[in-house]
Amino acid sequence: MADTGPYIAQRPKRADGQRNYDAILAAARRAFEADGSDASLEDVAGRAGVAIGTLYRHFPTRAALVEAATRDGLSELVALAERPADGEDALETLTEWMGQAVRHFSTFRGLVGILARSMYDEGTPSHAMCAAMHRGGAELLGAAQRAGRVRADLTTDELFDLLSGAAWVRENAGPGRDGGPRFLALVLEGLVLPDGAR
Amino acid sequence: MADTGPYIAQRPKRADGQRNYDAILAAARRAFEADGSDASLEDVAGRAGVAIGTLYRHFPTRAALVEAATRDGLSELVALAERPADGEDALETLTEWMGQAVRHFSTFRGLVGILARSMYDEGTPSHAMCAAMHRGGAELLGAAQRAGRVRADLTTDELFDLLSGAAWVRENAGPGRDGGPRFLALVLEGLVLPDGAR
DNA sequence: TTGACTACCTGAGGCATCCTCAGGTTAACT
DNA sequence: AGTTAACCTGAGGATGCCTCAGGTAGTCAA
């Protein structure tokens, strides 16, 4: 799937530009994975076989590069929230989605922080995606609440706080440990209501 | 209370040295509070009225400076865990301590990350303090578990994961929001057992 | 009080990274 | 083939990290 740029595919312009765009993005993904969101952009440019100015031409900001590097994964997460599942399996759908969210939020070190900031700061490259995730999460949470399987007083903002916390723990888990899933399981046991309540 | 240096008061040496040490520490606290743990050390030195080399003389590493800047607060937290409270109010003691821990962990932006890394990485300036906190937390958790008020399968490591997550959320809460306390409350409701179980 | 001794301080400087911009290059279209 | 402008390059100013050679001054003993 050729990624053509932010929001609207309006940059099928010069072939060399597209090629460099793709190369930079691939290099950035590798660098972020290895060194976190504060990886050296000059290093990224070097690995992409491109001068530093070219990188800044395509991605005027580090945040823009992060946004582009995570767009596919996060939009996948948004799509996953779109299949509405009221009724019987609303809780299962929600919990499965939460697991996916935590995984995506901790794609590389530093991402959760960027997303958390983008969530409430419009004018950030990732804000649109965050807003979409917020809507999707609200949908799933509402369904599970209507089904009587999740405590009714839980806000969507609070849900994302929990997801962010879990993702951060996963990012920063000590060597050998993997705090994410267990964290989420513990949290969930405090949110879920017994099945009989319905 | 004059802070005389790491671990053992073995540096009541020259008066100017002590004076600069204190000035740097005060400036660092202010800078960390304002800009997070990655504040400019050259700026800190400037605000302390000292050359950059002097800062590095007293604190060879940014981590050492962070350790010194947080030592008082964290040792207070450790002391708070030392008063053993078995029996009736074990749960209350634990929850109160957890609230204090979250507050101290989020003294400034970036601290939780440093502490989380120090927890399992000996050779870090903050490791000793982290180990002490780990022991204290284990004590309080054990008491609450023996009193039958907290689920028995919760590890001390997991407790600290939850505390770290809450602290991170508090650090990164959106403007106006204060996710920490609510986060902790939600988590606790998943950990606590009904009183009747005793 | 004076004379070491040495802990202490200074700040230039090498290195990394960020980000900009003036000028050269070339893909694409006529 | 000629024209246009999108694209690329890389030098360079700014900031921050950290080190080190050389100068300064607190302290103590005589």
UniProtKB/TrEMBL annotation, chains A, B:
Residues 18-77 form the HTH tetR-type domain. Keywords: DNA-binding, Transcription, Transcription regulation. Residues 40-59 bind DNA. InterPro entries: Homeodomain-like_sf, HTH-type_TetR-like_transc_reg, HTH_TetR, Tet_transcr_reg_TetR-rel_C_sf, TetR_SbtR-like_C. Transmembrane segments: none annotated. GO terms for molecular function: DNA-binding transcription factor activity; transcription cis-regulatory region binding. This is TetR family transcriptional regulator. It comes from Kitasatospora indigofera.
